[in-house]
Amino acid sequence: MHILAFTLIAVLAVSCSYSEKPANTETSALTVPDQQQEFIKPVEGFITQAFTDGHHAVDIANEDENGVGISSPILAVKDGTVTEVVTGVYDGGYGNNFTIDHGNGVQTFYAHCAEVYVAVGDTVSQGQVIATTGDTGRVFGATGIHLHFEMMVNGDKVNPFDYFGGAL
Protein backbone atom coordinates (compact mmCIF):
# COMPACT_ATOMS: atom_id res chain seq x y z
CA MET A 1 0.00 0.00 0.00
CA HIS A 2 2.78 2.45 0.94
CA ILE A 3 4.71 1.67 -2.26
CA LEU A 4 1.58 2.29 -4.36
CA ALA A 5 0.91 5.61 -2.61
CA PHE A 6 4.54 6.70 -3.04
CA THR A 7 4.46 5.77 -6.73
CA LEU A 8 1.22 7.72 -7.25
CA ILE A 9 2.67 10.78 -5.51
CA ALA A 10 5.84 10.56 -7.61
CA VAL A 11 3.83 10.31 -10.84
CA LEU A 12 1.66 13.29 -9.88
CA ALA A 13 4.70 15.37 -8.94
CA VAL A 14 6.37 14.68 -12.29
CA SER A 15 3.21 15.43 -14.28
CA CYS A 16 2.60 18.90 -12.76
CA SER A 17 3.18 21.74 -15.17
CA TYR A 18 4.33 24.41 -12.73
CA SER A 19 7.49 26.35 -13.39
CA GLU A 20 9.80 28.34 -11.20
CA LYS A 21 9.72 32.10 -11.07
CA PRO A 22 11.95 33.58 -13.77
CA ALA A 23 14.73 35.88 -12.59
CA ASN A 24 13.72 38.48 -15.18
CA THR A 25 10.06 39.41 -15.58
CA GLU A 26 10.55 42.30 -18.02
CA THR A 27 7.88 42.83 -20.64
CA SER A 28 8.38 40.60 -23.66
CA ALA A 29 6.91 41.28 -27.07
CA LEU A 30 6.60 39.76 -30.51
CA THR A 31 4.72 40.93 -33.56
CA VAL A 32 2.02 38.63 -34.96
CA PRO A 33 2.06 38.30 -38.77
CA ASP A 34 0.01 41.04 -40.45
CA GLN A 35 -0.01 43.04 -37.22
CA GLN A 36 2.06 46.18 -36.66
CA GLN A 37 1.78 46.51 -32.88
CA GLU A 38 3.66 44.08 -30.65
CA PHE A 39 1.97 42.31 -27.73
CA ILE A 40 2.98 43.27 -24.20
CA LYS A 41 2.89 41.14 -21.08
CA PRO A 42 -0.62 41.22 -19.52
CA VAL A 43 0.52 41.22 -15.88
CA GLU A 44 3.75 41.23 -13.91
CA GLY A 45 4.53 37.97 -12.16
CA PHE A 46 5.57 34.41 -12.82
CA ILE A 47 4.05 31.42 -14.60
CA THR A 48 2.20 29.04 -12.29
CA GLN A 49 0.85 26.84 -15.08
CA ALA A 50 2.03 26.75 -18.67
CA PHE A 51 0.19 25.96 -21.92
CA THR A 52 -0.29 22.19 -22.31
CA ASP A 53 -2.59 19.80 -24.17
CA GLY A 54 -4.94 19.91 -21.17
CA HIS A 55 -4.53 23.61 -20.28
CA HIS A 56 -4.83 25.90 -23.30
CA ALA A 57 -3.73 28.99 -21.40
CA VAL A 58 -0.95 30.47 -19.31
CA ASP A 59 -1.56 31.24 -15.63
CA ILE A 60 0.42 34.18 -14.23
CA ALA A 61 0.58 35.06 -10.52
CA ASN A 62 2.29 37.69 -8.41
CA GLU A 63 3.23 37.76 -4.74
CA ASP A 64 4.51 40.15 -2.11
CA GLU A 65 7.95 40.03 -0.44
CA ASN A 66 6.64 37.36 1.98
CA GLY A 67 5.54 35.01 -0.80
CA VAL A 68 1.84 35.76 -0.32
CA GLY A 69 -0.28 35.99 -3.47
CA ILE A 70 -1.43 39.51 -4.31
CA SER A 71 -3.84 41.03 -6.78
CA SER A 72 -2.10 42.91 -9.59
CA PRO A 73 -3.23 45.17 -12.45
CA ILE A 74 -3.95 43.41 -15.75
CA LEU A 75 -3.01 45.32 -18.90
CA ALA A 76 -4.42 45.16 -22.42
CA VAL A 77 -1.74 43.29 -24.37
CA LYS A 78 -2.64 45.18 -27.52
CA ASP A 79 -5.24 47.67 -28.77
CA GLY A 80 -8.67 46.11 -29.28
CA THR A 81 -12.38 45.99 -28.60
CA VAL A 82 -14.04 44.15 -25.70
CA THR A 83 -16.46 41.59 -27.15
CA GLU A 84 -17.64 39.71 -24.05
CA VAL A 85 -17.70 40.33 -20.30
CA VAL A 86 -18.96 37.87 -17.66
CA THR A 87 -19.00 38.86 -13.97
CA GLY A 88 -20.61 37.67 -10.78
CA VAL A 89 -21.02 34.04 -11.83
CA TYR A 90 -19.00 30.82 -11.83
CA ASP A 91 -19.07 30.62 -15.67
CA GLY A 92 -17.74 27.10 -16.03
CA GLY A 93 -14.96 27.82 -13.55
CA TYR A 94 -13.59 31.00 -15.17
CA GLY A 95 -15.27 33.38 -12.72
CA ASN A 96 -15.07 37.04 -13.77
CA ASN A 97 -13.74 37.06 -17.31
CA PHE A 98 -13.71 38.93 -20.61
CA THR A 99 -12.51 38.73 -24.21
CA ILE A 100 -10.78 41.35 -26.35
CA ASP A 101 -10.74 41.24 -30.15
CA HIS A 102 -7.48 42.64 -31.52
CA GLY A 103 -8.43 42.31 -35.20
CA ASN A 104 -7.02 40.03 -37.91
CA GLY A 105 -8.51 36.98 -36.15
CA VAL A 106 -6.63 37.50 -32.86
CA GLN A 107 -8.47 37.48 -29.52
CA THR A 108 -7.31 37.33 -25.91
CA PHE A 109 -9.26 35.96 -22.94
CA TYR A 110 -8.68 36.99 -19.30
CA ALA A 111 -10.18 34.96 -16.43
CA HIS A 112 -10.40 34.69 -12.60
CA CYS A 113 -10.33 38.51 -12.32
CA ALA A 114 -11.06 40.14 -8.96
CA GLU A 115 -12.27 43.32 -10.67
CA VAL A 116 -13.12 44.01 -14.31
CA TYR A 117 -12.87 47.61 -15.53
CA VAL A 118 -14.18 47.14 -19.09
CA ALA A 119 -17.57 46.60 -20.71
CA VAL A 120 -18.71 45.08 -24.00
CA GLY A 121 -17.98 47.51 -26.83
CA ASP A 122 -15.20 49.37 -25.03
CA THR A 123 -12.12 50.16 -27.09
CA VAL A 124 -8.96 49.50 -25.09
CA SER A 125 -5.44 50.73 -25.65
CA GLN A 126 -2.31 48.68 -25.23
CA GLY A 127 -1.05 49.02 -21.65
CA GLN A 128 -4.42 50.21 -20.30
CA VAL A 129 -5.36 48.70 -16.92
CA ILE A 130 -8.42 46.57 -17.73
CA ALA A 131 -8.81 44.37 -14.61
CA THR A 132 -7.02 42.93 -11.57
CA THR A 133 -5.90 39.37 -10.95
CA GLY A 134 -8.08 37.35 -8.64
CA ASP A 135 -9.37 33.97 -7.58
CA THR A 136 -12.96 33.96 -8.85
CA GLY A 137 -14.40 30.79 -10.35
CA ARG A 138 -12.62 27.47 -9.94
CA VAL A 139 -9.24 28.26 -8.39
CA PHE A 140 -7.35 26.03 -6.00
CA GLY A 141 -3.91 24.86 -5.02
CA ALA A 142 -0.72 26.55 -6.15
CA THR A 143 -2.41 28.87 -8.65
CA GLY A 144 -4.19 31.02 -6.02
CA ILE A 145 -4.68 34.63 -7.10
CA HIS A 146 -3.70 34.75 -10.77
CA LEU A 147 -4.59 35.61 -14.34
CA HIS A 148 -5.72 32.80 -16.63
CA PHE A 149 -4.65 34.14 -20.05
CA GLU A 150 -5.67 32.59 -23.38
CA MET A 151 -4.97 33.60 -26.97
CA MET A 152 -7.01 32.59 -29.99
CA VAL A 153 -6.01 33.00 -33.62
CA ASN A 154 -8.80 32.45 -36.13
CA GLY A 155 -10.81 30.71 -33.41
CA ASP A 156 -8.09 28.26 -32.38
CA LYS A 157 -6.49 28.43 -28.94
CA VAL A 158 -2.74 28.97 -29.38
CA ASN A 159 0.24 28.98 -27.06
CA PRO A 160 0.78 32.62 -25.98
CA PHE A 161 4.54 31.92 -25.72
CA ASP A 162 4.60 31.72 -29.52
CA TYR A 163 3.46 35.36 -29.68
CA PHE A 164 5.50 36.80 -26.81
CA GLY A 165 8.96 35.79 -27.93
CA GLY A 166 8.96 32.68 -25.76
CA ALA A 167 8.66 34.57 -22.45
CA LEU A 168 5.71 35.96 -20.51
Keywords:
168 residues, mainly beta, Glucose Permease (Domain IIA), 1 helix, 11 strands, 30% strand
Task: Please estimate the helix content.
Answer: under 10%
From the N-terminal CA to the C-terminal CA, the straight-line distance is: 42 Å
Coarse shape: globular
Q: Which runs of at least 5 residues are low in confidence (pLDDT < 50)?
A: 1-34
How many domains in all?
A: 1
Total helical segments = 1
**CATH C-level:** Mainly Beta
- The CATH topology is Glucose Permease (Domain IIA)
Q: What does the main sheet amount to? A: 8 strands, antiparallel
Q: What is the number of E strands?
A: 11
Report Rg: 17 Å
At CATH's second level, what is the architecture?
A: Distorted Sandwich
N to C succession of SSEs: HEEEEEEEEEEE
How large is the share of residues in beta strands? 25-35%
Structural class of the secondary elements? mainly beta
Q: Please name the fourth-level CATH homologous superfamily.
A: Glucose Permease (Domain IIA)
Mean pLDDT figure: 79
Describe the protein in words.
By secondary structure, the protein is mainly β. The protein has a single domain (19-163), classed as Glucose Permease (Domain IIA) (Distorted Sandwich). It contains 1 helix and 11 strands. The strands form 2 sheets. Strands 1, 2, 4, 5, 6, 8, 10 and 11 form an 8-stranded antiparallel β-sheet that branches. Strands 3-9-7 form a 3-stranded antiparallel β-sheet, with no helix packed on it. Strand 5 and strand 6 form a beta hairpin. The radius of gyration is 17 Å and the shape is globular. 32% of the residues are buried. Residues 1-34 have low confidence and may be disordered.
